[in-house]
Amino acid sequence: MLTLQRTTSESPDFQALVVLLDADLRIRDSEDHAFYAQYNKIDTIRNVVVGYRETIAVGCGAFKVFDADTVEIKRMFVHPDARGQGIAMTILQALETWAAELNYTACVLETGKMQPEAIALYQKAGYAVTPNYGQYAQVENSVCMRKTISLSAL
After folding, report:
1. What is the DSSP code (8-state) at residue 3?
2. What distance in Å separates the CA atoms of residue 41 and residue 47, rounded to the nearest whole number?
3. Contacting residues for 12 by C-beta, under 8 A, at least 6 apart
4. Which residues 6+ apart lie within 8 Å of 48 measured at CB?
């Protein structure tokens, strides 16, 4: 059984999972990793969900304010030993619900072409590819996505 905890970026379990995420991204992103890493700082993220199997943190995700109506999904990760069990989707849905509870109406995110499993997850969750936004506008390896959310639709 998966238990979810709402927390902040100060969570040691979240921080430990992010270390693993960054190690994975360093390999996938190769020479582009330093560019992406500058936009993935966690020190100010106030909305984090950590998933636990018993007392073991197995997955995480977060969001931060993007604009007045929108949050940006960040730092989604599931430990390799726990993949393929629906944990990422459960965490993503929990983030969307939390954002809707705070009256946000949309989520955006950026992922990379080197993360096809992430792209598939987001498409399955109802995200659509959009033009790359902000710092990702001219980045060929980035894939930006968006989804409209509401409590009644979740």
Report:
1. E
2. 13
3. none
4. 6, 7, 8, 9, 11, 14, 60, 61, 62, 75
- Lowest-pLDDT range, 4-8, 103-107, 113-117? 113-117
Edge-to-edge strands, sheet with 106-112: 2-7, 47-53, 56-67, 70-78, 106-112, 142-148, 128-130
Rounded to an integer, the average pLDDT of 58-72 is 97
Cα torsion angle, 11, 62, 70, 110, sign = positive
What is the pTM assigned to this prediction?
A: 0.91
β-bridge partners, 57 = 52
10-16 long-range CB contacts below 8 Å, 24 or more apart? 11/48, 11/50, 13/50, 13/52, 13/57, 13/60, 14/42, 14/48, 14/50, 14/57, 14/60, 14/62, 14/75, 15/42, 16/57
> Which residue, among 35, 71, 132, 106, has the nearest Cα to 61 in the 3D structure?
71
Helices (H) and strands (E) in the chain, counts: 4, 7
Check residue 33 and give its pLDDT.
47
